[in-house]
Amino acid sequence: MQFRKVICYSYAHIQPTLISSSFRNLSTSSQLFKHQQQRYREAKVTVNEKSKSRRDAARELLMKTNRTKWEQEMARLNILKGRIPTSDTYLISEFEPKKYSLSEAVELLRESAQPDMYDCMDNPVRVKVTLNMCTKKKTRFIPKFESNLVLPNVLDFMPVRRVLAICQNSDDREAYLTAGAYDAGGSALIQRVSQGHYHWGEYDTVVAHQSWESQVTKLRHILKDRLPTIKNGRLGEDVMKLMSIHSNSIQLESTSIDGVPEIGLLDIILGQLSWDFNRLEENLRSYLECIESQKSSRIINEFIQSGEIHCPPTGERFILDISQYCSLGNKFKGNQLIDEGEEEEEDNDHHDHDNVIDMMSTQIEKQQNTNELDI
User: Which PANTHER family did the record assign (predicted)?
Assistant: First the structure.
């Protein structure tokens, strides 16, 4: 009987570079499909009624839980409203939450971000803004808030937005690429997008000339919320101007909570914690002014309810006093709720496209002039 010598290799005997490169290739090949087209998982079998009812029950339980927590928190805040502590030492849970100015909150966050603690002075400072989504009709709520903004102090530590520019003349492709477009072109670019040559993660937004509106609309199933339209400000006559605006702008999009349609949450980034206080304050003011100016006309009462500043990974959160940065208050006539049977007011949410573009281009010009003065 012959015996064969078997040698077993452990991962420790393999070179780390080979392991990392092989797994990197494996990960890339598994994430990018053919033609780099985004594909969604499809169920191989039909979902039975039992599993569907379980999912519906779980979602309904989540909605009820969120609703209960929110109502309890609102009731607690109403009870504590007006309770001010009379001494320096007190239980926070027994009094109305304190509102901090931006300078006070930033200083407290910097104390926790020192090198001997969290060592995160270069981390981004975030503000969670709570928006009021209630309208005059009791059962109607604003589904989502969307807008674009050019900050006076650019977040240069964030990734640059990659823009696909569908220009009127394909001969101008090189000019758009030089100006910073991820890719540009005319009918050829539209064809490449329709064939799935661009992976979903390769670009952030799309701008197009108005002459391509009919063909671009056919790409709705591929572009989804990135489809350029006149309403979102990504379809117009001056594509170079649109590309410059949306490559330098910040996209604002609120998220909802299941079971609590009355509010929406908006996460904004002011800058790095190590930045000068004036730069952080200018960005915060620009954010809040943009939110107030672009709000829906159907909103009843104050649109911006509160703002909570934090800087991960520090666990401290402070409620901001934002009344000094934006003019809060109900700007439209009559704030009485309308019952289900009464007539609903028309939605005047469609903002003038030209005014929005002019406002954002003015912000870019101011920013460029400021940079020239600094130089």
Answer: 54S RIBOSOMAL PROTEIN L1, MITOCHONDRIAL (PTHR36427), LARGE RIBOSOMAL SUBUNIT PROTEIN UL1M (PTHR36427:SF3)
Residue 138 CA to its chain's centroid (Å): 27
Q: Which two tokens stand for residue 93?
A: 């849970």
Model pLDDT for residues 70-111, shown as the tens digit of each residue: 999 999 999 999 999 988 898 988 999 999 999 999 999 999
**Comparing C-alpha atoms, which of 302, 300, 257, 350 is closest to residue 137?**
300
CATH 3.40.50.790 occupies which residues in the chain?
A: 163-248
- Continuous segment of H or E residues that includes residue 183: strand 183-185
Q: What is the CATH number of domain 163-248?
A: 3.40.50.790
Q: For 102-152, write each residue's pLDDT tens digit.
A: 999 999 999 999 999 999 999 999 999 999 999 988 899 999 998 888 899
Output the pTM of the full model. 0.73
CATH number of 97-157+250-340+349-374: 3.30.190.20
> Backbone phi, then psi, for 119, in 5-degree steps?
55, 60
